[in-house]
Automatic annotation (TrEMBL), chains A, B:
GO terms for cellular component: mitochondrion. Its EC number is 6.1.1.22. InterPro entries: Aa-tRNA-synt_II, aa-tRNA-synth_II, aa-tRNA-synth_II/BPL/LPL, Asn-tRNA-ligase, Asp/Asn-tRNA-synth_IIb, NA-bd_OB-fold, NA-bd_OB_tRNA. Belongs to the class-II aminoacyl-tRNA synthetase family. One of its GO terms (molecular function) is nucleic acid binding. The gene is SLM5. The lineage of its organism: Eukaryota, Fungi, Dikarya, Ascomycota, Pezizomycotina. It comes from Heterodermia speciosa. This is asparagine--tRNA ligase. One of its GO terms (biological process) is asparaginyl-tRNA aminoacylation.
Length: 541, 541
């Protein structure tokens, strides 16, 4: 039989939704489509109680969290990512044979009231059990016991199945959605900025370099001379972005208000609870003349986000989540729950105070002199706020709310920030400050940083020159290291073009998505908020 | 006067919205907050016509696109990123002095009906003009004339100000929003997958390597031995992700349905209209037993997206946009408009056909033999579909709609795909196919690729071993290059763990966001769809 094109094209059935069984495109889908039919655990648990105790046939798919075998029946806790709660299933002992923690099962049974006095109101009387994905319960790395955070970090691909981590994933998803709505309602457009860049917005010492040849680092010359070898994919060295700010500024000129949530990178070796080498940052740029316009947007955005999250059941889940330390589950749970409630209240119930850097410095010095506080590092204007200083400032000025610290010294901030005194040229005054802010959470963690940007060509050119490294030689030393770094290794001409042609006063901010989330959920280390944390010496999976 | 902490904290005024003038945090914001008050061009243009011709005072901020000076008045076109249309402003000649293309201005005046017979219905009679951001009109790289796409690519930071590119940015933003709603409504959660990874999902030859020391590539040993030097930030070589699929699979196990839009990278030197080295990809993974479940989701998602976009005015803007070739503006515009209308119709008005790879191959061979088509490369089963073959298949089978090509040979697809015949072990049958699809747009461009994933531990382990390079030695040669590459250099144990513990049948897909956008907007080269394209030899800004 000869083939003719007109015979062959086959259309799949119209009007099917992804959840309906589909007419399959060809013979390979011989498996039953019934096996994966079933509800998630949240859906089953959230069923309205039936007053008359009518039996309700139910099919649920989930993972076995624990099994408790008694003589005449087995109690199995079933969970999945839809909720951090679990569902109690009752099985005949023979049904539970071979079942273990970690097994993925489909259960068919009756959703019925539990006898009075039980922890749960409803339970599943199982009639049929199908094992979808077996698991070796002995070897399964997530047992029903206390696992240290350090241990869990070694298995990120399985850690995400723990109730806390699954909740974090859902929470992040919801944050993205709420933030997207906030920005859309306020006229911002969402962008996909570049990740491989020529510029290193904050500091050349901490960028990752990108090369195309995995073996390039093994190739060298005996005399140590430079090698323009196979790794020069882009002709010159390129970096992973440390911030999308400069690129967002380009869009801002045309679109007035722009934002993004995108990955950023720091080749930072410091091992703290707040630092990782890869994190998704929320950044926004907008036309603005006053720093307070930026600060107000930040406050408004975060409060809107929390309001949106409160309207879901995620917060309720957070405070009722069982957090285990292996000994005092309930107590730990209560402690975390009250910590979280307090934190959310501090963020939402009051306007957030602001304080200038100078005022903060005065307070720190006064505290040192009066003996009200002891610091490892003596606070000085030139050196900026150390972590211990930030904690103190946040506590004293924030009183449980976040606090904006504004107007930092120019010499410790990047070159692109607008001077507080707009007549002042870059580097001409060592006491000069810039129109910027850091937002400190009550625990002292810097969660947002923002500023007005220098929008005037002549002032910005001057700052770039003043900060620039030329031929490896550092300039006259009148500028600080951070400021100097921020203009190293960069092709700044395109950035100056933005001021050369139709510039406009503007500013913006960057928010550490995961730092905020860690604070809101009471997870102290950012390495446990990010599913696959990358930091010095570690990049699993 | 001694400082006391209780005196200093200052609260900013409550209940301010970002658009209201704010009480500024301190003395630095001395500038008038009036300068940036004003409407965008779209808002002014979209005002409902006033039947009585009542004069309406208006303040608008935008960029001068063109100026036409006549003896008694000057006609100035004002535009911004809010719309690709522009607004006509009428100035006294003395007001227009010194104004040039690219200048950002604030105009205060009366929004009034234009005299009959004019191109526009309304115009702005300017009373006051303020220059916010001057521009040297002579040097401004965007003049009112034809600029080649090649030229525009050299100035990505300014190209984004052209009406087409500004529209593309808004369109991307809207796509993100529509897709987020689609996935949320269908129970998917949105994730932030890792960018720096250990695995190279598709092919080790095309990954970018990440190192922390920009000078690491200049360091080597004379004997060529390997160097565990300063660039080993993560202890071992790490790559920029080529796909988030493997990580999404880990989440899928717990969350059933997951998706992301995130950046992916290929160190691919091929210079075509469809390839760049960095692009944002939409990826999704879900529980599924039949390939058609995945295909139906793809079709449903894209149709929902287009429906959402049609409800905005973006599509109308697209087809009325002036596209210039310097000679025949109107004609070009009409050609593109009808092309776009045709493309949208083909995507939305019919169910999409599907065809197997074998059937497509038969059709190609028949076409070759019968002389119906001439190909540079003779179609063979082992070599897969070349671009010219894809174009032909898309044309013949798609008839203006996208077409799913399914069940490709196993040996030319990655190791993780589920065999069409589920009993067949990896590599045991050279004619074996896998449960996968490519979605070809009517122009032959592959815009989505998806498959069911091998969810069974024993089959997957076998495939990994069969594909693996061990000690640099290639195995028995029974597997193809692409298949082999896909398991090189990777730590697969964590991926096998996903099958070891509670595995579930599933599948997913990846969609080239910018490829689809290029097709929908009639922009033929992906380098002109992505604002800052990165490709071999080029990474500007």
């Amino acid at each position: 039989m000869r083939w003719t094109p007109s015979r062959l094209p086959r259309c799949r059935a119209q009007n099917r939704t992804p959840t309906q069984p589909a007419r399959t495109a060809s013979s390979y889908s011989s498996a039953s489509t019934l096996a994966l039919d079933g509800q998630d655990v949240a859906t089953v648990l959230d069923r309205k109680p039936d007053q008359h105790g009518t039996l309700q046939p139910t099919r649920v798919i989930g993972t076995v969290r624990t099994i408790r075998n008694q003589k005449r029946r087995s109690f199995v806790e079933i969970g999945d990512g839809s909720t951090s709660r679990s569902l109690q299933a009752l099985l005949e002992p023979h049904q539970a044979e071979g079942l273990g923690t970690g097994t993925l099962v489909a259960l068919i049974g009756t959703w019925q009231r539990s006898p009075p006095g039980k922890e749960q109101d409803y339970e599943l009387q199982v009639e049929e059990l199908n094992v979808i994905g077996p698991a070796d319960a002995e070897k399964y790395p997530l047992q029903k016991k206390f696992h240290s955070t350090e241990y869990l970090r070694t298995i990120p691909h399985l850690r995400l199945r723990t109730p806390l981590n699954a909740l974090l994933s859902r929470l992040k998803s919801e944050c993205d959605y709420q933030l997207a709505n906030y920005f859309r309602d306020h006229g911002f457009i969402r962008l996909q900025p570049p990740i491989i860049t020529s510029s290193d917005c904050e500091g050349a010492g901490e960028v990752f370099t990108v090369s195309s040849n995995p073996d390039a680092r093994h190739i060298g010359r005996a005399d140590g001379s430079s090698l323009d070898g196979p790794d020069q994919f882009f002709r010159e060295p390129k970096y992973l972005t440390v911030s999308s700010q400069l690129h967002l500024e380009a869009y801002m000129n045309e679109h007035t208000k722009v934002w993004t949530i995108s990955p950023t990178f720091r080749a930072d070796k410091s091992d703290t609870a707040r630092h990782v080498s890869e994190f998704w940052m929320l950044e926004a740029e907008m036309r603005a003349e006053a720093l307070s316009d930026i600060m107000t947007t930040v406050e408004d955005m975060i409060k809107h986000l929390l309001e949106g999250l409160r309207a879901t059941n995620l917060v309720q889940e957070l405070v009722t989540l069982k957090r285990r330390d292996g000994v005092k589950d309930v107590e730990i749970g209560q402690q975390v729950a009250s910590l979280i409630s307090e934190r959310w209240a501090g963020l939402t119930e009051r306007p957030w105070p602001s304080v200038t850097y100078s005022e903060a410095m005065e307070a720190l010095k006064y505290a040192t002199k009066s003996g009200a506080a002891e610091f490892k590092h003596f606070p000085t204007w030139q050196r900026g706020l150390q972590a211990e200083h930030e904690r103190y400032v946040a506590k004293i000025f924030g009183q449980g709310s976040p606090v904006f610290v504004t107007e930092y010294p120019q010499l410790i901030k990047p070159f692109y920030m607008l001077p507080s005194n707009r007549e002042s040229w870059y580097g001409s005054d060592k006491r000069a400050t810039v129109a910027c802010f850091d937002l400190l959470l009550p625990d002292g963690c810097e969660v947002v940083g923002g500023s007005l940007r220098e929008h005037r060509l002549d002032y910005l050119s001057h700052a770039v020159q003043k900060c620039g490294l030329k031929d490896g030689k550092i300039d006259d030393g009148s500028v600080g290291l951070e400021a100097r770094r921020s203009s190293e290794n960069s092709n700044r001409e395109w950035y100056l073009d933005l001021r050369r042609y139709g510039s406009v006063p503007h500013g913006g901010f960057g928010m550490g998505f995961d730092r905020l989330l860690g604070y809101l959920t009471g997870v102290p280390n950012i390495k446990d908020v990010i599913t696959w944390p990358r930091y010095h010496g570690r990049c699993d999976c």
